[in-house]
């Protein structure tokens, strides 16, 4: 992978992994930090209208939401990293 | 054989770039034995540890739904997070320390990517045969024989991956009940999901991605060179001795033919799991597995040349300069590690299973009672980090003449790993206060265990007479 390669020329799988993989790592760390600090069982007691979820469900769903956010940031980086079209 | 590229296999459109599939040739020798030892020990720990029990529960059990980690005799709560953080820092620093000292030992012998890939390669070699046979099989048409071999390989890979996934989830859900539940299809949705997720990752990473994980995906592989210096142990080809390379018959004096010791058999390239040529010099793709060292030593033995044309050495040693084991960065990493280890030991040692938090009632600063005394209201949070339910008794001191009123019968039972909140009131005759505010110490003691307890300061706001 030479540095001069135009981002657009990289295959789709490669771009997908460039977005999904770093965000996976960051989401993992963020999940640990978030749920060490916040107990989802207590959270559902405090917030009205929050559906009753088990901790396991909350951890898993929380991880995927964080992954989605991190992946969005990665995808935007990829998008803005492309040379602008005329 | 004079090919320089790793293989003539199909050009797969792989995950990262058009790459030739790497078919690492099986290798024997001292470093291969060491790696095998690493594989057996590490996978033995991984697959065996969840089955150990300690005091009636799983010995190593990360009980996420219960928000506690059991490790042998210890139980850690979210309040002990800093210990976990400390442990992770120690792990990272150990990696730096060993990298500075001996290069990529981690990558070559201990990384899960290497360890699981070794197992998958071993299965592949048993079924598909050696390197040449694998390449022939992949090139050939889809005959029933090829279908049978590939089918068997993938069945075994998938079963092994599935078992790995179950074991992984077994660290979070007691494995003795998880295993039978899985095989009777009684596992819950998220359990199934994570078993399949981890199993799929194992299958994909060890079966297909292999060296691409190290080259393109691993963050450590990208920055490990920052820990290197001229005294770091690396695997290196000795060009002064090997060049000019070239083939020759056995027993021919290479000096007469104007050749170095390298017979250009390209076995070092064929055994390389990342498909590089070590003779091109130090490359970041090199995971330091020493397969090329083993195979080259074998060739040198056959040629009756001295071993070590490719060997573990340092940049300084190659240049004939003296080697230094103790260098500033090694000493610095070592000292930091010692300090952090000491901090961790102290942190675990002084961990108090009794916790108390004092929160003043925010709504009312103070209240005057009909009998002339002043009252403050607090919420006390009693925390039990021990493994069993405990009875707590709360008292105050440090404020002579003050009375503690708690509308609950003492002692208060606090469940294992639980928090109990109790409202508490402190009353005092303002004549006894010499300042508008005073300090009062709340003390939680465990009933029947006089040595166990903890205390916390609270602020008392009064009105001076």
Protein chains sharing the most extensive interface: A-B, 16 and 16 residues
Helix-and-strand structural type of chain A: mainly alpha
**Weakly predicted, low-confidence segments of chain B:** 1-13
Oligomeric grouping of the chains: heterodimer
Give the fraction of residues assigned to helices of chain A. 55-70%
Distance between the termini of chain A: 26 Å
The main sheet of chain A comes to: none
β content of chain A, as a range? under 5%
The coarse silhouette of chain A is: elongated
Compute the number of helices of chain A: 3
Structural domains of chain A: how many = 1
Estimate the strand proportion of chain B. 15-25%
Number of strands of chain B: 18
Radius of gyration of chain B: 32 Å
| SSE succession of chain A | HHH
Characterize the biggest β-sheet of chain B: 5 strands, antiparallel
SS element count, helices of chain B: 16
Shape of chain B: elongated
pLDDT averaged over residues of chain A: 80
Number of E strands of chain A: 0
């Amino acid at each position: 992978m030479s540095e001069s390669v135009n981002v657009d020329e990289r295959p789709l799988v490669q771009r997908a992994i460039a977005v999904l993989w770093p965000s996976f790592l960051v989401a993992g760390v963020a999940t640990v930090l978030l749920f060490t600090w916040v107990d989802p069982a207590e959270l559902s007691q405090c917030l009205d209208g929050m559906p009753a979820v088990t901790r396991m469900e909350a951890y898993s769903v929380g991880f995927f939401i964080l992954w989605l956010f991190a992946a969005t940031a990665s995808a935007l980086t990829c998008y803005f990293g492309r040379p602008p079209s005329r | 054989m004079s090919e320089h590229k790793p293989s003539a296999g199909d050009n797969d459109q792989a995950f990262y770039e058009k790459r030739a599939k790497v078919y690492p040739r099986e290798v024997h020798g001292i470093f291969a034995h060491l790696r095998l030892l690493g594989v057996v020990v590490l996978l033995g720990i991984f697959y065996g540890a969840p089955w150990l029990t300690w005091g009636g529960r799983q010995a190593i059990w990360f009980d996420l739904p219960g928000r506690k980690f059991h490790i042998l005799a210890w139980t850690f709560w979210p309040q002990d997070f800093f210990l976990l953080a400390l442990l992770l820092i120690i792990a990272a620093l150990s990696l730096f320390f060993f990298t500075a000292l001996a290069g990529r030992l981690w990558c070559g012998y201990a990384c899960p990517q290497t360890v699981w890939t070794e197992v998958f390669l071993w299965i592949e070699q048993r079924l598909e045969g050696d390197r040449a046979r694998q390449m022939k099989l992949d090139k050939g048409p889809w005959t029933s024989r090829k279908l049978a071999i590939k089918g068997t390989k993938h069945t075994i890979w998938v079963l092994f991956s599935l078992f790995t996934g179950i074991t992984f989830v077994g660290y979070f859900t007691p494995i003795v009940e998880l295993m039978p539940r899985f095989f009777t299809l009684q596992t819950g949705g998220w359990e199934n999901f994570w078993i399949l997720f981890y199993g799929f990752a194992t299958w994909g990473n060890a079966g297909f991605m292999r060296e691409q994980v190290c080259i393109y995906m691993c963050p450590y592989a990208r920055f490990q060179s920052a820990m290197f210096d001229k005294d770091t142990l690396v695997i290196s080809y000795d060009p002064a001795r090997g060049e000019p390379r070239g083939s020759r018959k056995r027993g021919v004096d290479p000096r007469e033919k104007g050749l170095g010791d390298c017979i250009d058999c390209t076995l070092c390239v064929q055994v390389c799991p990342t498909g590089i040529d070590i003779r091109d010099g130090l490359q970041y793709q090199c995971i330091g597995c020493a397969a090329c060292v083993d195979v080259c030593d074998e060739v040198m033995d056959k040629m009756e040349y001295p071993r070590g044309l490719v060997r573990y050495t340092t940049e300084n040693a190659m240049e004939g300069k003296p080697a230094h084991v103790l260098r500033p960065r090694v000493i610095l990493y070592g000292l930091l590690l010692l300090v952090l280890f000491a901090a961790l030991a102290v942190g675990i040692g002084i961990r108090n299973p009794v916790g108390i938090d004092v929160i003043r009632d925010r709504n009312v600063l103070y209240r005057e009672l009909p009998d002339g005394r002043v009252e403050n209201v607090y919420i006390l949070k009693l925390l039990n980090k021990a493994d069993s339910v405990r009875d707590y008794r709360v008292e105050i001191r440090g404020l002579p003449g003050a009375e503690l009123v708690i509308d609950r019968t003492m002692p208060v039972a606090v469940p294992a790993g639980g928090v109990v909140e109790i409202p508490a009131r402190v009353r005092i005759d303002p004549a006894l206060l010499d300042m508008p505010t005073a300090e009062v110490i709340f003390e939680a003691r465990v009933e029947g265990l006089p040595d166990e307890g903890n205390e916390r300061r609270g602020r008392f706001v009064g009105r001076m007479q």
